[in-house]
Amino acid sequence: MMRNRKRIKRRLPSVSQGRAEAGTDAQNAFKVRLSIKTALGDNAYAWDASEEYLFKAMVAFAMRRYSKKETTQISNVLLCNMTERVSFWFVVTDSARNVTTVPGSEVEAAIRMNRNRINGAFLLTDNTLQFLKISSTLSPPTEPTVPVWLIVFGVVLCLVVAGILLLVVSGIRRRKKNNHESAETGDLEDKCDTPVTTENGIPCDILDLKAGQINGVYAADDERFTPL
């Protein structure tokens, strides 16, 4: 008799009874733990009947999207063992036969497929909305707004342009340097080619053919003998 009572207590009743009595050892039941205060701080909201309804709706949405069937209703999601620290168990019953629960593998696959949508509905993350029997899912990788090939092409093009500019600038500098060196070499050659005249062993400056140059010694003699 005692064994029959235990079996009845562990069995999941139908939706008509209004609640689920799933224990922690139920095969297809999942425990959920929410850390709303930790995630939102002063903006944390209270967990009430409306939040429970939203959770049921999100689970029903996940089951519909996974199975691509519109037979799962909000009434097929049953909650039990609710605690003040916002943790509870839930099961999903078969829409055809409310007494039979949906296999846990299907529920897990549906939750994993729609984990981000469920988290977003409650403003939580995998760390603050935990399905204890379901491992956390990695967020999908963000795709860059610009294609990768276009980024690589832009980088290569910038390197090519920078290389061309470097070659042009270095060529201009080298040309200026060569012109400067050739000018200095020409000046030295002109200085070397200019003849230096000497008189009585003393070098003299080049005479200015236009203005002429007067020797002071002969000028004195000319002034002395010129007037008659």
Report on the structure:
- This protein is α+β, with helices and mostly antiparallel strands and 228 residues long.
- It has helices at residues 2-10, 36-40, 49-67, 104-113, 115-121, 148-193, 216-225; strands spanning 30-34, 77-83, 87-92, 129-131, 197-199, 202-204.
- A four-stranded antiparallel β-sheet has the order 2-3-1-4, with helices on one face. A two-stranded antiparallel ribbon has the order 5-6.
- It is rod-shaped and about 130 Å long.
Produce a short descriptive summary.
With 228 residues, the protein is an alpha+beta fold. The chain is 46% helix and 12% strand. It is rod-shaped, with a radius of gyration of 50 Å.
- The best one-word shape is rod-shaped
Report the helical percentage: 40-55%
Could you name the ranges where pLDDT drops below 50 across 5 or more consecutive residues? 1-21
Q: Determine the strand fraction and express it as a percent band.
A: 5-15%
Q: What's the end-to-end separation, in Å?
A: 174 Å
Largest sheet: 4 strands, antiparallel
Q: Compute the gyration radius: what is it?
A: 50 Å
Identify the quaternary structure here.
single chain
Strand order of the largest sheet: 2-3-1-4
Mean pLDDT: 76
What is the strand tally? Answer: 6
Structural class given helices, strands, pairing?
A: alpha+beta
**Number of H- or I-type helical stretches:** 7
> SSE order, as H and E?
HEHHEEHHEHEEH
